[in-house]
Design brief:
Low-confidence stretches of chain A: none
Number of strands of chain A: 15
Structural class of chain A: alpha/beta
Oligomer: homotetramer
Mean pLDDT of chain A: 96
Strand content of chain A: 15-25%
Helix content of chain A: 40-55%
Largest sheet of chain A: 8 strands, mixed
Distance between the termini of chain A: 46 Å
Order of helices and strands of chain A: EHEHEHEHHEEHEHEHEHEEHEEHEHEH
Largest interface: A-B, 71 and 71 residues
């Protein structure tokens, strides 16, 4: 079925197609349409939508539903995600699958409601306490808002871990055509879940391990699955990288501006290429090393003051110079502005 | 005055000497002695100690007191710090000085109460939303628990920014001699504070900037001070680095095990050196590059599954191979265990 | 269907038969089996059970579901009910139907978990702010725990007002035969509800009336329905009152001890009768006046230090002497003890 | 010192003169000036003012400070007081002295911010759970807002029980001359308090009594002090009652309208008198019985739909007919309106 759809609404449609039937959250601009659409659509499929007292309450309800074996989600923006950091650490620590959507807004604190990409550290490095990882997916279109949400539920169950959809306010708010197949979600068995049934009475969902050896062994087991995920879940998109001399790297909405920039640069005779990470964790390091192997320069562009650039540098480990250009506060770079950055980087006159 | 003192208590003594007169928090092992000592000592100097309803309440009380111009602090461990992430982003976003102590415990979620160093990402990269930084200090002794707390209040006021004391449970719980000078704290003027007086009525403490240009300009101004801090606030300790062939890097309690390891290795003829970051943010990259300039190998050791190692790699940018060894769950590496790691790294037989 | 059932479980069975499909609460002894049974049975009939963050959260979820037109309930014991007082005033003030169960425990504050009847004032006089009334039903058996719960939902919808099931811990905890008919609940139309549909978009559920005349008119309208309820909803049970010289008055579990006392007294030649209020609000004043019209003395017995006795005195208005006997803390009076009270009241030798 | 002062501010001045040094609250119209004045004046005398996260947090802070032996207070209006009902039951149950001010606003739920007297039941009968009583004082002037607040702290300590100042929004908001003597408060010893000192280490402040006999004995002990208070603390004001044929009864602002009505009626030849309860609990029943002993009719006037009238009826127990007239929503009765009520009550033509 093809339809015109808002990014935030596409998330909910994807979630429902993925078999998600429980939503707990608290509205916040620019993520509120997710709550609104969930309030509308979840009851229609026999699911639960609940606006909680606070984001702290919401994420702990997610914990409860996930422990009971449901596909469950929440969504918010920066301040709300910060309030969820304790709960997300608990979810990861108890190996509970769930999907959390962050439609990033501007600034630390209250900031503003314009788009940014400045929650990268908080979501990708892990803003909660302890050794754990979120899997993080970065959609760049309305179609991907639905598709990656569906993928997120698959990955969440595969790795028994929270998966974050990290999108900027542009992708959340814009409308584009969306094509959805009406397929029946294949829900995995969850023999570990606590369902209030006699069979699951002995199951224990917990993150407490009082003995140090037990705690270390448990973290090693978590780490092992993170290593597995790093091997097989790196996702990315390449464009014009074969002969590129300068590689532009960006995710989400920025990748679309970078594609226009690449095309404009090529018209001007500059062999530019685009590398778009789709998974932010695991970061597509192997493909990036390969894509950057023949370029002279790498330019990372973000709607932040430089966060993902650290993962680009860690991946390339000094093999190629990595430069950064960022805009913040809701402002985005124009193609002209980025061309100028590339020219100056390549030491070319405009 | 020389005394035998617990690390957690030394934090409070340092805070009081620094002129801190307001403490808002909620107890959690292994940080509870900080609350206990604050409850005892703050009232004795005319200060306020308040055990709040939750960590969310506590950090917002810190915001209020900081906005009123007081030197103010809170302390907790991992789960509590996660709950404070929203408030910390607000404090940074409103440019409010405060000191937050994290006595790290084990594991994500509930975990256990044994020491770890796994909140590095959450505190150093910034677990809250938006572009902001915490300054982060890492004491390695009871003396430093007091001294770096005093420094923390200075830096907080100098940069109008939260400063985090990031200590593992070992440093928090152990007892050592502590030497304190009874000096009068020099409290800076804070003309920006909102004190409920006619003169400060027009002052506005906020993090909201609705216009994108205004929000971008404000973040550039915040960034400028972070760049200044990076230039002048990098702190570290070196040991036997002049002729080192292998450089061991660790902070907090680990740096003390590493020093023993270095000495043991040298007895075995291995020229090992120690680099101890004291500031985790800004990370002492310049000194590390210099210290690592003549070594063959770098080994980073943490009570985590590898967090600070990213900043070591970012600093060295591929110039020297960087290896990692970590223990978690409350377990710590022995000198023998670390020697073995170095031998294998240097491809030497034991 | 006849079954052996616990009082607390009977409440849930009655609620489900009455068409209630949403339960929000927080467990507390001696009401916890209600939450437990609701968690088990509500999902089986496609309903929602949610354990909220706190009683404050729970009662506000009840408000939301009631505003959406659902039959909805919560249950707790004293401390939880106290936390719900603000929400109950809001529910009454917005004319929202709901059923709230109070399984009374012992003492003010934390007290103990033994049965008492000391929340009478809080539930019957109205512990929340402002002019409003709860309708209050007092079951005295497991059968009535189910039957009066079904009635409660009818009355709640009829008067658009909260209805309280006020039961002591004895009635909540004891097991007795329960006979339930499997009837289809007749749910009334609620054209005033806000259902998220286009048709109900203009509906407004609120308790705010800024203008004084408007606020007064609204309260007069509420009062009018309370006067109506007082006329037609007084419920009670009489036993041996025709020729009684002394009238014993008690509700809930006490009424059963009083019945045994009446029978024992009659064996001793004392013409005693029993008056049992079933509705505590509206209080069955008319029937009590009638029943007391020929007696010499009235003795009110409660598991409190004297609360309902005020309504007995207000009803009789000095026409007959009203005496009181109470036990508290979880202790209940024996038949022998009560006989002794009556003897001494009637100035008879034992 | 004589000054022009608002009722809400007079409360704070009285509290400070009474030696109260801790205020925890949350602002709400029409009680906000109390918080505002407390924020201004408490720090000036070395006291603590704290705006809590919610009324639930505030009342539990009051519990903490009271347990530590401080004179402590809070203030709010209807909705806030409802949220404090659990805490107030805990304070009474743990026999902790404190002063709570309720500046009553209009309506149940959100209602409006105009004056009413409709929290009488919630404060006087006890809106929290369990057998306990608040002592309740009803000021009728700005001077009494200060004087009765001072008295409230005395009574709170004398009976180790919460004392409520129950005032309507008129008395809270109006300005009148206030005369205060600058006396040193005599603070009683509190050997039962928990002060964090070695001497008080064995003290236990609690309301939990698990054994039924222990719980019953404890409640009997509480009851004994309530009986004592009933004997010696009944306070009231009489006016023209000696030869009165009709007795008007009202508290707070209404008593002032009633006085004008009495004077107007006497000009018209109607022998009217005024009875003003100053303590609402204990209710001045003895004096009321005496004052009503020679009248033909009693008219109770309230800014409610009839709450205190129950205590008047309970006191007179049918000896004199008791009629009621009430206005709500922020509307108050005029003298003319009340004269008309009396005329119609006395079956006189206007």
């Amino acid at each position: 079925m093809r339809q015109l759809c808002k990014g935030n609404v596409a998330v909910v449609k994807g979630a429902i197609l993925a078999g998600c039937r429980a939503y707990y959250g608290y509205p916040i601009t620019p993520a509120s349409e997710i709550a609104e659409a969930a309030a509308l659509y979840f009851p229609q499929v026999g699911g639960t939508f609940l606006q909680a007292e606070s984001e702290v309450a919401a994420i702990n309800m997610v914990y409860g539903a996930a422990a009971a074996g449901l596909r469950v989600m929440s969504a918010s923006s920066g301040p709300g995600l910060s309030l969820m950091q304790e709960g997300m650490s608990y979810l990861a620590g108890a190996e509970l699958p769930c999907v959390i959507v962050d439609i990033m807004r501007g600034g630390p604190g209250l900031g503003n409601i314009a788009p940014e990409q400045s929650d990268y550290f908080a979501m990708v490095k892990g803003g909660g306490h302890g050794n754990y990882r979120n899997l993080v997916l970065a959609p760049a279109s309305v179609q991907e808002m639905a598709d990656l949400t569906m993928l997120a539920f698959e990955l969440a169950d595969k790795y028994r871990n929270p998966v974050v959809i990290l999108a900027d306010g542009f992708v959340g708010q814009m409308m584009e055509p969306l094509e959805l197949e009406d397929i029946e979600a294949q829900l995995p068995e969850k023999p570990w879940a606590v369902k209030g049934t006699p069979e699951t009475r002995a199951n224990l969902v917990t993150s407490i391990y009082l003995e140090t050896d037990e705690m270390e062994a448990y973290q090693r087991q978590m780490e092992a699955k993170y290593i597995r995920a790093k091997e097989v879940e790196q996702r990315y998109e390449l464009c014009h990288t074969d002969d590129a001399e300068v590689l532009l790297v960006g995710y989400g909405i920025i990748s679309r501006v970078l594609l226009s920039t690449v095309e404009a640069l090529r018209k001007d005779g500059v062999k530019a290429g685009l590398f778009r990470p789709i998974t932010l964790w695991p970061f597509p390091a192997k493909a990036l090393v390969e894509a950057a192997s023949r370029v002279e320069k790498v330019l990372v562009v973000e709607l932040s003051n430089g966060q993902m650039v650290e993962d680009v540098r860690l991946s390339l480990n000094g093999k190629v110079p990595v430069d950064f250009y960022g805009r913040v506060g809701g402002n985005g770079p124009s193609v002209q502005e980025l061309k100028q950055q590339v020219f100056s980087l390549m030491e070319m006159a405009v």
